[in-house]
Design a protein that fits this description.
The structure is a single chain. This protein has 18 helices and ten strands. It has helices spanning about 1-10, 20-35, 45-55, 60-65, 70-80, 85-95, 115-125, 145-155, 185-200, 225-230, 245-250, 255-260, 270-290, 295-310, 315-330, 340-360, 365-385, 400-410; strands spanning about 100-105, 130-135, 165-170, 175, 200-205, 220, 240, 260-265, 290-295, 395. The protein has a six-stranded mixed β-sheet. Helix 7 crosses helix 8 (about 145-155) and helix 13 (about 270-290) packs parallel to helix 15 (about 315-330). The N and C termini lie far apart (about 80 Å). The model is unreliable at about 1-15, about 80-90, about 210-220 and about 415-420 (pLDDT under 50).
Length: about 425
């Protein structure tokens, strides 16, 4: 009996295993983070925060090198409702919808000059009756950007209390055949949508008037038909977009969409407003294309787009013009030196090896590759200084580049729905 007791004492269990000081601090930090977020239980998300706070540990270094930041994770968790008792149910809902939804917050341009439309959108969503707004306007007026502006305001906490705990999700369901092998798919989707709506999700879908397919008995079902039952029952709330002609047709045909969606008219921007929009967003395109747009180029883009590009409206047409001009300008700046290209290739190779080692739990290898990556990035920095790549002034996009971009767009402007709305 004594020998058995001694054996048990010498054999550590999962509870008895000693923890390093680093691990103990990580657990303590995780408990603090759970308390900070008013969460009742400590989960993997809190352990992630604890790791990030233990800055000197190897795991934290890898996370930081991969771009994971403590403040960003905290902000994201603060935006998400946390109900541990329903964790398993929520996971199944997310699995059902994960392939078809995305967050709009980081997916749209800054919203400029659409305060009236945004306020009306907020009013409709805040009504007790749970209205479903539809932004009605010609392609290019910025309907999606308005919805993105709402998503941004919710994330920033500058909306009425009734919307403070909501989140806007872009719903992108593919057309599905009527005769499916899995007959329960529609019912599962229905339940997932209703559960997500109860969790504060509002669904956004573009071009709700579209209905692909012909008269075949197995023609694709459009997303609106899949949403019809929960919308009519008032169990989910949606935001849609449409064009004036298509929404008028829905009304004339007595389509159920016209009855359950409240229109918000979005008129094309005038030239003065479009110039302000481009001035507000040009920084995003300058960083992406590594160019600089002159004030004359911005004004010229708006004037030419309004005059010559007829398939879309301002400000969308002018945005297309500066984007096209920026892309073309990159070709005029020449290629990188061969030494720089080779180092960039080595960095990509090392990063792939390091990620593979982490996935296989080969942490010593991962540590080696992390050190090699750091050396190569220092090498790249020296090469960029050698060739003065960071000192070169950005290529100026002017009137001439804008006119070339206009010529290309006019040549490719046959399909009025070829670009986003």
């Amino acid at each position: 009996m004594e020998s058995q007791t001694t054996a048990r004492e010498k054999t550590p269990t999962s509870v008895d295993l000693p923890l390093s000081n680093e691990s103990k601090r990580v657990l303590a930090y995780a408990a603090e983070e759970a308390e900070r977020l008013a969460h009742k239980h400590i989960g993997s998300e809190h352990l992630l925060l604890g790791l990030l706070r233990e800055e000197k540990c190897f795991a934290a270094q890898i996370l930081v090198e991969r771009g994971v930041r403590l403040s960003q994770v905290r902000e994201e968790l603060a935006r998400q409702p946390h109900e541990a008792a329903q964790g398993q149910k929520r996971t199944s809902v997310q699995d059902e919808l994960s392939s078809y939804i995305s967050d709009l917050v980081d997916d749209t341009q800054p919203l400029i000059g659409r305060e009236k439309e945004l306020d009306r959108l907020i009013e409709l969503l805040s009504r007790f009756s749970g209205k479903n707004p539809v932004l009605v306007g010609e392609p290019g007026v910025g309907k999606r950007t308005i919805v993105g502006g709402l998503a941004r305001r919710i994330a920033d906490g500058t909306v009425p209390q009734s919307l403070a705990e909501k989140a806007i999700l872009l719903l992108d369901l593919p057309p599905l055949r009527v005769l499916e092998k899995d007959g329960s798919w529609h019912e599962r989707l229905d339940r997932a949508l209703v559960a997500a709506a109860a969790d504060g999700k509002i669904f956004f879908f573009n071009r709700m008037h579209d209905r692909p397919g012909g008269i075949s008995p197995v023609a694709p079902i459009h997303v609106t038909e899949l949403l019809q039952r929960p919308i009519i029952a008032g169990k989910i709330q949606c935001i849609g977009t449409s064009t004036p002609a298509n929404f008028a047709k829905l009304r004339a045909d007595g389509h159920w969409l016209a009855e359950y969606f409240e229109p918000i008219e979005v008129a094309p921007a005038d030239e003065e407003t479009a110039i302000k929009v481009l001035q507000g967003i040009k920084g995003v395109y300058e960083i992406f294309h590594k160019v600089s747009y002159t004030d004359d180029a911005i004004e010229h883009a708006v004037l030419c787009a309004n005059k010559y590009v007829k398939n879309r409206s301002l400000p969308g047409t002018a945005v297309d013009v500066i984007d096209e001009a920026g892309a073309a300008a990159q070709l005029q700046q020449g290629s990188l030196p061969e030494e720089v290209v080779e180092v960039q290739k080595r960095i990509r190779f090392i990063v792939e090896r390091m990620e593979g080692s982490i996935a296989n739990h080969e942490f010593e290898k991962a540590r080696f590759y992390s050190q090699e990556e750091r050396k190569e990035r220092d090498n790249l920095k020296q090469l960029r200084e050698k060739y003065k790549l960071d000192n070169n002034p950005a290529f100026n996009v002017g009137r001439e580049e804008i006119e070339r971009a206009i010529s290309k767009l006019i040549g490719n402007a046959d399909d009025p729905d070829s670009t986003s709305s």
